Amino acid sequence: MPEGPLADRFAALLSGSGLQVHRVPDFTTAVWRKLFTNLAANPLTALLQQRMGVFADPGMARLSRDLLREAVAVAGAEGADLGAEDIARTLELYAAAPPDGGSSMLYDRLAGRPLEHEFITGAVVRAGERHGIATPLNGMLLTLLRAVDRDLRAGRA
User: Fold this and answer.
1) What are the residue numbers of the active site?
2) Residues contacting residue 8 through CB under 8 Å, at least 6 positions apart
């Protein structure tokens, strides 16, 4: 959560709720780091209908790295301070995940629920467009996810 009067009011609203509020001096970077944890894992597991073990494949690790590289450029244009260490940390997170675990987007697809792709992959693509930064891999995933989501919403998946 950012610092300042608005953050103070928001923290006060959550006081006593059981939720912990952690203030950060650079909210933009914190938000992009959180997005990174989902950026490759969610769309790839959902599209492939595979669990986290898929990231043990060297080709999937390379694809994930390339998706995150596109996002680093976009995040920087948005004011986030991300770099190669954030990519490495995210890939380590994927590698450490239980191989039989899944992502929220995978579980949504398996249950026939709408996907959250517009908030994850779509956010990167739209920010890239705002800044004139090409995101061909994320754009391709977004196109595929939209097609799957259309079928889910129509009850065809």
Assistant:
1) 34
2) none
Residue 2 has pLDDT above 70, yes or no: no
Would you say how long the chain is, in residues? 157
Residue pair 77/133 in contact by the 8 Å Cβ criterion: yes
| Res. 1: pLDDT tops 60 | no
- Burial class for 1, CB neighbours closer than 10 Å (0-12, 13-18, 19+): middle
CA distance 86 to 34: 10
Enter the DSSP assignment of 31: H
All residues at 6 or more sequence positions from 117 whose CB lies less than 8 Å from its CB, including other chains: 42, 43, 46, 105, 141, 142, 145, 146, 149
What gap in Å lies between CA 7 and CA 1, rounded to an integer?
7
Q: 157, 153, 154, 122: which is closest to 138 by C-alpha?
A: 122
Q: Tell me the per-residue pLDDT of 67-83, one tens digit each, with 9 for 90 and over.
A: 999 999 999 999 999 99
List pLDDT tens digits, range 8-18: 887 788 888 88
* Distance between CA atoms of residues 59 and 48, nearest Å: 14
C-alpha dihedral sign at 129, 133, 134, 137: negative
The two structure tokens encoding residue 44: 């790839």
